[in-house]
Predict the 3D structure of the following.
Amino acid sequence: MKILAFFLALPLVLGCSCAVALVPPEYRQDVVLDTTPELGATAAFLLSAVDLQFPVFIQDAALLEHGIMGRSQDLGGAYLVELDYRLTPREKAMVLVHELAHVLVWDAGIPDSSSHGPLWGQAWAELWRLYTREDALPEPEIRLPRDGQD
């Protein structure tokens, strides 16, 4: 199922911001440049459900000192999603859902009323529904001791 189709029936609203850069044609596939192996599987699962015009690059970054856990950019021919390297695998996956919602809006080419407007909300809700499927969730990070083990 390709979830991008829901944008076609939505009314046009005000603008969206994006950065512009040239991406060489040899980089026409999604790439996870990340140190968290579990994120690659989650990203592949989510990206397989959408029909994007351009590839998505996902990488670690130092963002928490700027007060953010993730950010995304439209590079004009590709999308860049950066996730703070200190996040747990589950936190990274949850922030990835948020950032991929921005990517879906940009890729549809439909301006939204704000960076977290109604189109973004619809994209986020659909991606979150996919992410919370049992087979898409990374293993929990919390391990409880068993029978007196520390």
User: Anything to note?
Assistant: The chain has a mean pLDDT of 74. The beta strands are 31-33, 56-61, 70-74, 79-84. The longest strand covers residues 56-61. Residues 21-136 form a domain with the Collagenase (Catalytic Domain) fold (CATH 3.40.390).
